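We treat protein structure as text, and this decision shapes the records that our systems exchange. The remainder of this section carries one protein's record, kept here as part of the documentation:
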Amino acid sequence: MSDALRVLQGAAPVMAVANFSSMGHAQACAELFAEAKIPAIQITLSDRQAWQMVKLCKDMMPFAKVGVGSVLSRRQMLRVADEADFAVSPGFSQELSILARKTLTPYIPGVATASEIMAAMNEEHRVLSCFPAANVGGASLLESLSAAFPDVTFYPAGGISATDYLDYLVLEKVACVGGSWMVPSEQAITSNRDDILAMLRQIYG
């Protein structure tokens, strides 16, 4: 079993995909996720303090895998190798694939087409993120791609919500889905923390 597949199976059924708005937001969510025992989180690099947020979550959620999303460059991949547990990209890059292999970093590249899947498979990837899943065909596309590529395990992310994530999880070749809806706003945590905590505990059993 690959390290990338272990990450997804450990995160299942839903990987919390976080685009935190501030350090305060990151801390509030990390406290909530630690209490709910969420097994993994993917933090996007859209905020200038994203790497500090990665460290905060690593410190506050020591039992969880903390990964980085939207990894686009060599510099970012090298930093993931030093500071996080796994990397996810929105697309496929041969350079990043080679670098991840050299640094022993679990890496999940993104794909949206059959041609991209074939390119990733040529670099020995069998665990791929379908992104942006909801916009490129959703669960029906993944069902078709799974038939064409039976050796690939998918991690769909992008546009998936609480109302349709189960449509993806019923597919045999989907190990886990990515969901930003799993990350409540700081205001929601303040006003509705108990209900959010109950929802998270129900998802993760």
Notes: The chain has a mean pLDDT of 97. Residues 3-110+160-166+176-204 form a domain with the TIM Barrel fold (CATH 3.20.20.70).
